[in-house]
Amino acid sequence: MNTRPKILGLTGSIGMGKSTVAAMLRELGVPVFDADAAVHELQGPEGALLPLIEEAFPGTTGAGGVDRPKLGAAVFGDKDKLARLERIVHPAVAAMRGDFLRDNAQAPLVVFDIPLLYEKGGHQGLDAVAVVSAPADAQRARVLARPGMTTEKFEQILALQVPDAQKRALADFVVDTGIPLEETRKQVAGIVRTLTRAE
């Protein structure tokens, strides 16, 4: 008898369609913990981390929560400051993830949506990892269509991420979003079936 849900890590580089796949998993009734959404909540208006962030980085928070451009400017390119911010944020996200697991203890499968799973070593404790992937030209077109995105910014982001080919090689499952949505949906359903099959 399995005492806890199986945990699937969901990741993928920028513009690969990870949010779309996370939505498909939710449609199939699989609980999804979104690490980015947790950070937004913690750093949003009246967020639990605002006092700690303001203390560490004065002038980066306000009534609307963290001023992302200001905080980004405060830590950008400074490994020590970034590490300090991570020491504030990561334990709080881990606590929210623990609550999520307790709330969904009866589910056969849960998903941790972790954008920088391989970059930050977040694959410990997972039963499997699914990488969302698409052809490089599709990825580029999606990202450059975003408001405020430039080719230079896109290249900078890519340089900080583990290359897509490496992620695919490390993954237990690869979800292709460079194909019609219905085909992607079938792939996602197949992964859920594989992971929830009775042992």
Structural commentary:
With about 200 residues, this protein is α/β, with parallel strands linked by helices. It has one domain (about 5-195): P-loop containing nucleotide triphosphate hydrolases (Rossmann fold, 3-Layer(aba) Sandwich). The chain is about 50% helix and about 15% strand. The chain is built from nine helices and seven strands. The protein has helices spanning about 20-25, 35-45, 50-55, 70-75, 80-105, 135-145, 150-160, 165-170, 180-195; strands at about 5-10, 30-35, 60, 65, 110-115, 130-135, 175. It has a five-stranded parallel sheet, sandwiched between helices. Strands 3-4 form a two-stranded antiparallel sheet. Strand 3 (about 60) and strand 4 form a beta hairpin. Helix 2 packs across helix 5. The longest helix is centred in the middle third of the chain and has 25 residues, at about 80-105. The chain is globular.
Write the layout of secondary structure elements.
Layout: E1 6-11, H1 18-27, E2 32-34, H2 35-43, H3 50-56, E3 61-62, E4 65-66, H4 68-75, H5 79-103, E5 109-113, E6 128-133, H6 136-144, H7 151-160, H8 164-170, E7 173-176, H9 181-196
Helix pairs in contact: 2-5
Tell me the span between the first and last alpha carbons.
9 Å
What CATH calls the topology is Rossmann fold
As a whole number of angstroms, the C-alpha radius of gyration is: 18 Å
Shape: globular
